[in-house]
Amino acid sequence: MQRNVEIICTACNKETFLRREPVYEGLKKVGEKLFCVSCGSPFNDESEVSFKKKAASSVFSEADKPKQIKVFSSDEANVRNCRRCMHYVVNPFAQKCGLTGRDVLATDQCWSFEVKPVQEKADGEKAESPQ
Ligand SMILES: [Zn+2]
Q1: How far does the centroid of ligand 1 lie from the alpha carbon of residue 70, in Å?
Q2: Contact residues for 3 (Cβ-Cβ < 8 A; gap 6+)
Q3: Where are the chain's structural domains?
Q4: What are the pLDDT digits (tens) for 79-128?
Q5: Closest-CA residue to 120 (of 65, 78, 69, 83)
Q6: 53 CA to middle of ligand 1, Å?
Q7: Taking the complete model, does pTM exceed 0.85, yes or no?
């Protein structure tokens, strides 16, 4: 268990860190000396130290979070891309959505998506194949 070392020093009022120095008697560790990293003020024990309160979530690092990023590239048939939509209008100057009149990109996704009827395959434009 990692110990809290973030403190607000009661002597210098800085948000700083606690330095712990082990105290040995011979080879035996008998205690710790506590200091403020910023000003070097000693503390007799932890009850004198004003620790910063940590958010509970900071106990875990980003690496501990489960990775659940899914990419749907393998399932192109279900992608609501503008280029597959019946409202998608392409001309030499712009790609637009015929529904909203806004500029779009072929790869945009849209919740007004309606699949382009199969018989309307644009001339000269190859039907896209997933592979
Ligand atoms: Zn200090």
Answers
A1: 48
A2: 20
A3: 6-54, 75-116
A4: 788 888 899 998 888 899 988 888 998 888 887 888 888 764 555 555 55
A5: 83
A6: 17
A7: no
